[in-house]
Amino acid sequence: MQIIIFTLNDKYYAINTKEVEEITKTISLTNVPNSEDWTEGLINLRGNVVTLINMNKLLLQEEDSCYNNIIIVENEEERIGILVKEVIEVVNIEEEKIENFNIDNDGILGIYRIENRVINIIDIDSLLYKNEG
Fold it and tell me: How many CB atoms lie within 10 A of CB 41?
């Protein structure tokens, strides 16, 4: 399994590269009134409208003041941009070495350890589905 590792509030997270279309620098956005708290707005990515979400708010964590990248993912035929602090690297991991949690599906598949880093593996579809209701 190949993952993209990124940071939010000095913690490491990752998503499967199969879900990622591209990575871009931050782009100016248009606010959307009455949207979910974790929806930052809409961006125009080469003529395509993409919903931009704040991953910190989605994960119910403290707000990060610095976002340098947007990871564009495909979610149920919709393109979504995820604000992240920094994209660290793309690595291949052994899926069977992901340490799973025995708790409700909160959008985190489990953790993976690389050297001295603990990486939270995110299931973006579950996380978005959980927060839409």
Answer: 17
Domain boundaries, the chain: 2-132
Q: What is the pLDDT of residues 31-82, one digit of tens each?
A: 999 988 889 999 999 999 999 998 888 887 777 668 889 999 987 778 999 9
> HEC profile for the chain?
CEEEEEEECCEEEEEEHHHEEEEEECCCCECCCCCCCCEEEEEEECCEEEEEEEHHHHCCCCCCCCCCEEEEEEECCEEEEEEECEEEEEEECCHHHCEECCCCCCCEEEEEEECCEEEEEECHHHHHHHHHC
Estimate to the nearest angstrom the gap between the alpha carbon of 6 and the chain centroid: 8
CATH architecture of 2-132: Beta Barrel (2.40)
**Prediction pTM value:** 0.87
